[in-house]
Amino acid sequence: MNNGNVDVSITLIKRFIDEECEGKLSALTTFDFKKLRGNKTYGCRGRSFDCDDTNLARAIYAVVWGDDFPEILDFNTKDRVLVRGDTLNTFHTLFGRLITTDEDQKQFKGVEHYSPDAELRGKVSNFHSLYHTIGNFFPLPNKNGGTSRAKTLNTYRGGAKYGDYFDLFLRQLESYFLDCPGCDPTITRLIELNRFYFNRFERSKQGFMEFCEVNFLEGYLNEEGSVRTDLTSHFRWWWKRRSTEESYKMEASFYIEFSSGLIGRRADIIINILEQKLNMS
Fold first, then answer.
1. Residue 97 to residues 63, 113, 173, 253: CA-CA distances in angstroms?
2. Binning pLDDT at 50, 70 and 90, where does residue 232 land?
3. Where are the alpha helices (DSSP H) in 148-237?
4. Of 25, 57, 222, 241, which one has the fewest beta carbons inside 10 Å?
5. How far apart are CA 195 and CA 216, in angstroms?
6. Distance of CA 19 to CAs 14, 15, 34, 41, 195, Å?
7. Residue of 251, 256, 217 whose CA lies nearest to 236
């Protein structure tokens, strides 16, 4: 990767740590990237705001993953990039959109449909900030075929078929790597379109496990190295007749517990790499 791009990215991250984290790199672990909306330096100046595609996130991808994926561009080059950020553990599918303006008493459309108690409201509110932290982001290839309406891997995963649940998407990637029959043809097409990224990995079980290792995704795998099937029922909050209030609470609590643990472990790995590359130990 262009060393100049890496140097610029390192400078931006260090500046952010000094200005927003009191010089403590560890504070980046829990920083809510949603706070960067409207920020001309660290946000998404000149393009639509997206927490996982902010200038700060792009700089982190360049430093952490640049050796593996040199196509990760400098954070301030262009809107359409070959590799961009993706958010792993979704929020809106299970919990719905924020429907209050009071940050101290957050309520979400999906949650409120199930008459939540204060405990569940608190868990969901905390997760609403946590899911926009660096441990929940990773870089994903972004080529879509060149038309404005064509789906990328990111946007296709977020559609109705997969409900933005990452384990369902990851299972399809596993099927592709293992050349399993029945693999989603759209995902296959998008993978082939992004060969510049996926050709780094052998199309095999080992290649799939290497992909997960490079992106710190091992938490989604079982002991055999396959995608776990016990992470969530992939419930959508608007399936109003398919869950009781009690079962919804159990589903939501389990999802938050698993996601929070994975986000924390990935954040620690990312911060450790940044610590080494930024010489901030």
1. 32, 12, 28, 18
2. confident
3. 153-157, 166-177, 185-193, 195-198, 205-214
4. 241
5. 21
6. 9, 6, 17, 12, 39
7. 251
Distance separating alpha carbons of residues 12 and 19, to the nearest angstrom: 10
The DSSP 8-state label assigned to residue 138 in this structure reads E
Say what angle helices 55-65 and 3-20 make with each other, to 10 degrees.
130
Confidence (pTM) = 0.92
d(CA 113, CA 4): 51
Question: Can you list the positions of beta strands (E) in the chain?
Answer: 83-87, 137-141
Q: What is the pLDDT of residues 88-135, one digit of tens each?
A: 999 999 999 999 877 677 899 999 999 999 999 999 999 999 999 999
- What is the spatial distance between Cα 11 and Cα 18, in angstroms, rounded to a whole number? 11
C-alpha–C-alpha distance, residues 176 and 204, integer Å: 9
pLDDT cut 70: percent of the chain above it: 91
Residue type, 2: N
pLDDT of residue 204: 96
Burial of 35 by CB count in 10 Å (0-12 exposed, 13-18 middle, 19+ buried)? middle
Structure tokens that stand for 27 in this block = 């504070």
Q: Is residue 196 within 8 Å of 82, Cβ to Cβ?
A: yes
